[in-house]
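Blackboard transcription, Thursday session:
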Amino acid sequence: MTRISRLLVTLLAVGCTTLPTGFDQLGPPPESRTITLLPDSLDSYSKYVPLGDAAELLLGRDDQYQSRVLIKFPVKDSALDSVTTVQLVLYPADSGLVPFVIRPCSTNWSTAAVTWRMADSVVQWLTPGGDYWHLDLAQDTLTKDSLIINLDRRYLDTLVRSAYGIILFPLDTGFIHLRSSTATGTPPRLRFTFLDNGKRTYTATEDAHIVDTFQLNSGLTDLLVGSGVAFRTYLYFNIESITAAATVVSAELRFQPQVQYQRNDTLPVSVHRLSESYSAKGRNAGFSPGISASFRYVPADTDSIVRLDIRNLVQFWTANPDSNHGILLMAQPEWTDIFRIKLPRTGSAAPRLTVQYVLPPEDRFQR
Amino acid sequence: MKRSALIITASFALLAGQSFFNMRGLGELTPLANARAASLANPAALSLTNPGIVLNLSKTNLSLTMLGAGTYGTQEGSGRLIGNIRPAGFHVAVPLPTKSRLLAGIDQRFSQDFDVWSESLSGTNYRYHVVGKGGIYNFRAGLAQALFDRFCLGLEYHRLVGGSHENWQFRLTEGGSSSTDTIEIDYSAGTIRAGASFQTRLFSLAATYEPGFSMTCHRFKRVHGVVTDSVRIYQVRLPHTILLGIGISPIERLAVSTGLELRPWSRATINDTPVSDFRNGWRGSVGAEYELFPNYPVRLGYSHQTWYYDVRPSTLLVVAPIQEHGLHLGTSIPIPKFGSLDLSGELLFRNSSNLSETAGRLMLSLVYFETWAKRTRRWGY
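(Written on the board underneath:)
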């Protein structure tokens, strides 16, 4: 019995092998080719993008970026005379030392659309970076332990009746993250204390941070990818030489970027397929919201090369040649911690697409 | 037609992989799905392949055959085992008045099952895993007429339908598959087969003739699952087939049979163009049956054949025929008031230039006999 079992196991093991027995009866393998393409056209642009989806609010500034925080509370216009103190409660998410001033916001805004330039999807700020009443509700330095800020009671009426929340302006260099209204248990709060020592607390209903960069117009010809203020790079590769019947086995977009700015160790980069012609529509060209490929770039790695697998995308293009409008390289997501990388335009580190494809096999009557 | 071909393919091909030689031509010529004939090395003219063989038929005969096959292929030191279990065929023969017989059946004529892997190709990150499934099947119906208790003539119409799927999967070396190219071919054809036999207690002589016929093959290519290549139609002209058989029973419990098949495939054409890889194939067999005990026969056989197409390995510049030697044995176990269970085991050794395989086939036929008797109805039971 043992011998039979061994024989069966041996036969099964032999059957599980994937040795190339008999493959050459199929004739020569289908022809395989590898091509390396440089972009036929490329460009880069920047754009203020809404950052309201960020899990945390970024407050601070340095020599390249500035980030302000906007918070709305559902305060009621009643019994304001009996309010004795107004306190803002914030929960920092990391350590830092950021002096800031709080002012009431004078233009309505929405979390989903607010940017450095736009208050919502249709209204521009009168002053980029947020419109505000020139009243300092408080000035303080935010540290890990600084949670409760007393607001100036004199401006309560303006805050409640004439303002659309508050804006936090950084006054000096440094950055700190704050818990947002989506944080369980630690959202920003506004606390009123009344004459009778009664208290009422309002939890933030909307918040966002808006980012600007002082480097926006520097190096206009640079190919940049970045977050906070979104930098996007457009690349177009001409793949007409690949026949529609070819099977794309691999397609790797690779480049070795230079980091210009980073606040995190990992820089997420993604590829989006353009659905409209960039040459016709420029930065307004539509792109697919779905991510075609992504890569978490770690500059500290010895092999600091961005490799993006866009095989499915190239396969889609070969089958639908008219749909090849190129790609956008973007931060993913663009509200992630601020970073900016630069792609060389020329040289071995410049973007290049290597495609390996195979022509279809012959049928049994053609072998 | 395509749907019926797919249904047949799916129902017959439970597992892939019958021969490493099945990738060319129309695939392996499948022997008759009948364990009794298989154990005698399948002398085709003396089996149900010949519509004129049913001289003595007093009862309706039904048989259903299952086939299990395993093939171990070796090439340049590497070996692989592939296997297959499937229903193989169904036959029925019904006696009619005036010694006529009604014949019908389903079985496979060509097998296109295979399963191969490519080598790791230099400079690539994938291997091919190519799996072929399907084949060409016979739906046959015919009539036979016994004459003078010695002769039998038969004629059958064969409707050939089938389909094959050939999947070329790109297996990435880091795991998983990348994409699949699929080649589908649907087959359809119609032909007739005529047979005759002369049978005495000591001696039998049988012959079958099938004229050449044309088969229509529709090919579809679905490349990487996205692009569908245009349909291509092939007209394959198959050659005529001649089957001969002689049976001798020198003593009461011993019967010896020999068979010869002639298939002049060098005359075959694809779209009216001769095919250089096709060659004239033939098959010879000799078998013997001896009854150790009454109704418990033991059967042995030997066969040799040259396949109808050559092997052209891409790695070599030689063209070589496929030679096959077969050892066959089997028996029957009677089942009272039912029929019998026929068993056969076959060991086939095939080789060509750089590839050889050893195939084992186990066939099991459940045979049922029924008498269509006229009963007188009586009251009470």
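Lecturer's comment: The first strand of chain A starts at residue 32 and ends at 37.
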